[in-house]
Amino acid sequence: HSGSIQMQRREQGAGKTEDLLHLDFEAAIKQVVQYFKQLSPGPPDDEAFWDKYDEPQLFKFDDSALVNLSYCTFLSFPLKLKSTGKKLDIAQLKREYRPAILQAESYFRRYEKNLEWCFDPELCQRASLNDYQRLGSYADWDYYRLTYHTYEGDAEYVSYCEEMSNAIKWIDEKVGLDKHQWERYKSIAYLQALKIAIAYHNIYRDAVMGAFSFDYDNRNDFYAVYLEIWKRVAKDKMEFVPAVKQIYEENMFPPRNSDIKLAMENHPLKFRASVKDNYSYVACIDEKTSEDKARLLIIEAVKKMSPKWKKSYLDYARKKMQIAVRVGL
Questions:
Q1: Which of 296, 277, 178, 282 has its CA nearest to residue 231?
Q2: DSSP secondary structure string, 82-104?
Q3: Which residue ranges make up each domain of the chain?
Q4: What is the structure's pLDDT at 296?
Q5: Contacts for 300 with CB less than 8 Å, ≥ 6 apart
Q6: pLDDT tens across 84-114, in order?
Q7: Is the Cα dihedral 245, 247, 253, 256 positive or negative?
Q8: Residue among 314, 23, 324 nearest 144 (CA)
């Protein structure tokens, strides 16, 4: 049943790519605006959404949702019953560690540094949020904490990203076209992404935009960039800078021109490796290697170039959902 729903969504929502490719830039953008307006703008902007618990409610909350952290902490780092020395289960924990003890022990937050997740103290005061929305992973939590996504929202986001990414893979074949053509195809891909997104009702507008941007920015065109550099440097015996300058002047990869220009100017980057730095992953490919074999090797090399810190919300959502399942939310 879920499979048929997905199929119906693809047919009725995204539409077939060939049915959209006839659109010119202006027509595609007009439809983009129409579909964009149908997306959820984000959390409600009413005062009730931002209400905080009063003190009696906070105490009741301490006795229920917030102590999940303590219970799950015990599961990760099992303590033993003082009376018997046996490991604790949830029911025993509730009997052994009453709210007053939990408060006295500061909810055992000394264990938090050993966990990869926590309940955000500030979000725990928000009356409109559920436990999943209060749960965060330590990695990038300050950046992602204000998304307020529910479990259902994250689950839809993961599904949307997978469906959207698969639907717009065709744009890889358009790399290298002139700027006017490229912008038209990019607008059509964005239109497809939005037509898919409106079938999901628990993800917000900013998340849809971010998903498309991250997916597009990480398209396979970098494989072709490094292949062209390798052909010039390894096979034609050009120096690196003249090689990238030639690629830039021929406007071979418009979406990557800014990166190629920085490499041509030997400009150091502060927060990520440059094209020149990353070429070290490719430079080791023997000059006698065939172009087809080199392409496969470069695909693997590009995977290694991606810095470990560069994560998307998709990575975060998948991890948070795993944590939520593990800790019983």
A1: 282
A2: TTT-PBP-HHHHHHHS-HHHHHH
A3: 2-43+151-217, 47-149+316-326, 221-305
A4: 83
A5: none
A6: 556 656 677 777 777 777 778 777 777 766 6
A7: negative
A8: 314
